[in-house]
Structure to design on (860 residues):
DNA sequence: GATGAATGAGCATTCATTCAT
DNA sequence: CATGAATGAATGCTCATTCAT
């Protein structure tokens, strides 16, 4: 897809050399921003520090992003997109709905993607940014809806096959699932031992699927 | 001689007039701060705006709180304490563990307490503040542990009576429960219709207790 | 002397009870202010701290002094007056000009009066306060002139008796003498051992009187 | 190819264009600060006013100095260094100790250097700043000691040649000399006519060297 | 008279954003 | 294009002064 129609610059067709370099730059910036964001959160992420980590001048960031908020939005989209692509892959696998949900949990808890998740989970869990900032960006909604629809689809699938309880509203199931996705950090606050991604996914999966009730 | 009665020193229970007024002021400030905090989050909550909303001078806030962080801490404690008192009441009722959890969910989703919850939920969900700020305050940990212990107690009770599945770790149950407590705002993001507190509590409660699986 | 014509208050002739108490208050405030001033200097001397040290309310200070500057002025006058009375006593003694100067030096270096001296020496050595603050107060000039005149008188006396060199202008002698009066604190900066008041007065006196030249 | 010449790194001797401009800016700021400092003292020297006088934005100052204190320290060092360089030149001249002291006095009284002297004299005369501020900066001590050592050296020289009285402690001589260095402003307070630097140096020199005693 | 809570102007400092080079 | 010096609005905080009680 990605039919970019931006190449109107005089010099050339913005071939692939320049463009590739440009994309690289953007990528580096996002990576650094992600790092800082994960370490310090939105408000303590300074453009200076990002630039410094990339090794470019502060002004250069503004060549690629109109402002700090926009950089964050990009970060968010990137994280979500990456997450989504994983979800999409999982969603399309010929597995039971149950299996697919478990895989998604595992992906969410995966340390590897942690930083990226952190960025958009931060938005989910609220309080982290001016809400307008985030919501004003309509595209974000679209991405979120896409995420929601993938999961809803799985939930509906499950209902159809009888795997899941048809009497519970899908939106509630979805909501609860999303809540559980955000790898909890109460652990650290409460001083509990951390679980591995697998363990956590397994146990949380059991709660989500079968509840905490004894039979 | 010096037959001092019990209320002559200014700092402590200084009669009731001054002290009452003082408490009122503090309350007003906290209320305004809570509002701003809920609207904009910690970093965009400015002392100026709080003062303006209360209708007092900026300096007055500093008569009651040493600084912005302390004001936040107070806010946090206030929210958590209020929440905790509800939890404590519920926890002590002669109800089944299951019933008690449901009541707690209802309390958490109650619109009335929403803003207060938001403040300390914000801390839960992280990213909102410099972690040091929050964690340096040891009492906070204590309060959080108290919350955790109330809920853990109920969970253990349930396990003992056979209501809950003894093969799932209490810490996981707890973690999942806390995650679900935070009234989800994906709703608004996803444009879904909101549920009432009762409905939400009921449905989420079902998921938490019995899972989403069909029988 | 002190023929105060301020007693026009309705209640009474502002007898001596009220007035005495009033003077006591003023004295206590000045004492505390002097202390703080000596410890922290003008700008870090806060009305709050002074009030706290006296054990009165901040507002009460304003019943006796129109403002911080005025309090300082009073402090200055008090120190200078006290110093002056010493000078006056010394000046009037039937001693040689030389002896009298030595006594003045000793008084200046006397640890006992240190705090009081510090206050007005601070003005001398400049930089400590907005110059206008000090100079706007014309009376200060008068007091300073009085100090200058006492010393000039001694210097002239000395010239008359041949004790002092008539070819050096009195104003220079005066200026140099005043400079030497301010007990130096380079000592502490330079890490030198401090002298006692006597030693210092003696040695500085020798320099001032006979110069550092070998004969 | 990258035929880098010897001056490509920004931080260090970055060529001469940028660096020169930078030094100019720093110089302008220091000059303005010096002015304000001389007029109002440390506490009433506001960053705003300095910026305004230079004609730059407030933030720009912080590009060159980490904070107000540091700006002051720089000011102090600058004044003292400048003064010291003069002293060093004088001290090394093949003149009698007496002559050298006179030259130093002249330099100190020179109107031209007045403002610069004022800054570090302000530190000398104390009261002007939180003592910690100044003394915490160890280098300051070093500079002061260097000044003291230059003068002590001259004094010792004089004693060795018999010019000066060997029975007076060098530290006292030094202390007295430093006191006299601070061009007295009692003049202005006392309304006396000011002397020219030469006259003043000459007369004060006579006092310092030979004392005020008539033979 | 006292009090001390309230005021609000003033200040140092930060940082996203701009723009001349 | 890239740079990074410059900007200036915004913010937390202090403290002399006022005034209702």
């Amino acid at each position: 897809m990605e039919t970019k129609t931006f190449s109107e610059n005089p010099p050339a067709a913005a071939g692939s050399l320049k463009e590739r370099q440009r994309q690289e730059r953007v990528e580096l910036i996002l990576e650094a921003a992600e790092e800082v964001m994960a370490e310090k959160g939105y408000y303590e992420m300074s453009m200076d520090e990002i630039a410094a980590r990339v090794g470019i001048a502060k002004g250069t960031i503004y060549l690629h992003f109109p402002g700090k908020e926009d950089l964050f939005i990009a970060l968010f989209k990137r994280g979500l997109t990456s997450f989504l692509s994983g979800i999409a892959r999982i969603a399309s696998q010929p597995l039971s709905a149950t299996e697919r949900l478990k895989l998604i949990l595992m992906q969410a808890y995966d340390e590897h993607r942690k930083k990226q998740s952190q960025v958009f989970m931060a938005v989910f869990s609220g309080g982290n940014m001016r809400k307008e900032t985030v919501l004003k960006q309509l595209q974000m909604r679209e991405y979120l809806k896409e995420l929601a629809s993938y999961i809803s689809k799985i939930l509906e699938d499950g209902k159809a096959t009888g795997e899941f309880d048809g009497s519970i509203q899908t939106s509630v199931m979805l909501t609860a699932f999303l809540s559980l996705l955000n790898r909890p950090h109460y652990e650290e606050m409460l001083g509990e031992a951390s679980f591995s991604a697998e363990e956590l996914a397994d146990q949380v999966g059991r709660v989500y699927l079968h509840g905490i009730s004894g039979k």
